[in-house]
Amino acid sequence: MLTKRIIPCLDVRDGRVVKGTKFEQIRDVDNPVRLAEFYSDNGADELVFYDITASYEGRALFTDILRETASRVFIPLTVGGGINSVEDFDRVLKCGADKVSVNSGAIRNPDLITGAAQKYGSQCVVLSVDAKRVGGQFRVFSHGGRVDTGLDALKWIRDGISRGAGEIVLNSIDTDGVKNGFDIEMLRAVTEISSVPVVASGGAGSAKDFVTLFQKVPGVDAGLAASIFHFGEVQIPELKNLLAEKNIPVRRRVFP
Q1: 0.85 cut: is pTM over it?
Q2: Burial tier of 64 (Cβ tally within 10 Å: 0-12, 13-18, 19+)
């Protein structure tokens, strides 16, 4: 059985890690390089970096922070924000990313997924989907959750996979930062139609929420969270110990 991954998410704005609730009420957290090193040293399986205002501001994703992080951290890095072309993939991968996350850029130009997958392989292409309930439908939002695209999330995910996306990160705007648990309903719907790994994002408030996630949605491959890790509410070694006790397979180091 494949091990479940635990992935801290670093939302970066103006060179700092920040965190909000339902994509709003943003507050400062820490230096991204220092935080990335901490997570790497403490058992994180991967890291996700999002430049959360790159698409909204119409600029290229940060590269200086990425280069410094990649030189110090030796677990896989997924990087997203302002990815609008295959050239952006090339730039980010050359800075040290292992995978590149696309969201708004792929919505504007779905062929971006196809072109990147053909050039770099599906394993490098992560389709990040910010979804929210609208009129009984899971609707895709873009530009950091600011713009309702009108796209049905399940149809968009199917399309992205058919174009070559090798992983899906599902960000539930409804549960983001609320800390009442992952969006089980939405995740079940996505894992039922996905043929590639699915990463759950949005809503973790305790270690038990990860247990619930993996028990109720066994098709989910990883749990991603931000604030509970950033503010020390959950420590990754203790979380992995708990998951192992519940017979949920995780990759563990020997921690005191």
Answers
A1: yes
A2: exposed
